[in-house]
Amino acid sequence: MSDLSSGFPAPRRLGFFSRVLDDTTAAERYRLVAEQIAHAEALGFDSAWVAQHHFHEHEGGLPSPLVFLAYVASRTRRIRLGTGIVTLPLENAVRVAEDAAVLDLLSGGRLEVGVGTGGTPEAFAAFGLDSNERSAIFARQLDAVRAAWVGRPLAGGDTLYPPGAQLPGRIWQATFSVSGGARAGQAGDGLMLSRTQPRPGHAPDAPLSGLQNPIVDAYLAALPVGVAPRIVGSRSVFVADSRQEALRLADIGLRRSAARFAASGQAGLADRAGPDAPLEELIAAYDVHVGSPDDVIASLRADSTLDRVTDLVCQVHPVDPPHAAILRSIELIATEVAPALGIHSSSTLRETA
């Protein structure tokens, strides 16, 4: 097992994440997020990640992340491109293995493959599956993807073409649980921590770090000797030039999101602060880091889990401000927030070399 228990040396990596939720048509959503990723690359972000969601356009706007990332790969040159996540139980494992292998070649070896059990019960039903079996299906599917990538014969005797032997070392597993952290560690995979997660009934006000540090502990304890930890800490981060402007947009976005969560009845979200709660309560309930650069620096520094991650990955959800404000937030994260946290983006490293 790994002997690392806390802390990782700088420089860490900086990432951008999108659920593809801009308030417009599907086609325009895809165009805008591609522009946001290109902007992040120009400012030195190391990675960009997109989520997969089926059917529910207010939860996520992208059912086909590998297709979208192939488009983004043609518009970028350096930034690593990740799925955060592919809902593996709802996919054909061989097709995922094939599409990922092709995308990795088209992108020049830039693909990172985040996977998880994900999805609503309704989404599982649409695919003819029982959501109660998601964990077992996920385990089988992930085993099948790994086997295909390393060239093991498929049912019928064929092997994958093009091969994907480079990809098993770029698998990341998303989880809310200590057991999931141990599972990712045992496999030598990366660990993906969410921007927020449901609180237990006995500790409704527990800090996010109180839930996620035990997951990191389990991951590191299970990691094979000699395997370097890979830990994404995804966080809701929205930065504006002034606290007043950031809170104005947060007030609009968080109330809109809270109303949707309340209407959805989704466990872990519907029972949080409602749309009429004070803004400060909404910010705390949804684990949002928002404000001026100084505000956000202080807020992120208070999150002890982030001292242990290798990749800080920032998303504007659930604030979901307009596109121009997202671009400005990306700029401020790269030029002010990340350097203050000891994370030097690629552009910063080039400037100081």
Question: How would you characterize this protein structure?
Answer:
The protein is an alpha/beta fold and 353 residues long. It is 43% helix and 14% strand. Strands 1-2-3-4-5-6-7-9 form an 8-stranded parallel barrel, surrounded by 7 helices. β5 (171-174), α6 (178-187) and β6 form a beta-alpha-beta unit. α2 (65-75) packs parallel to α3, α3 packs across α5 and α6 packs parallel to α7. The radius of gyration is 19 Å and the shape is globular. The protein starts with 12 loop residues before the first strand and ends with a helix.
Which key features would you list for this structure?
353 residues, alpha/beta, eight-stranded parallel β-barrel, 9 strands, globular, disordered N terminus, disordered C terminus
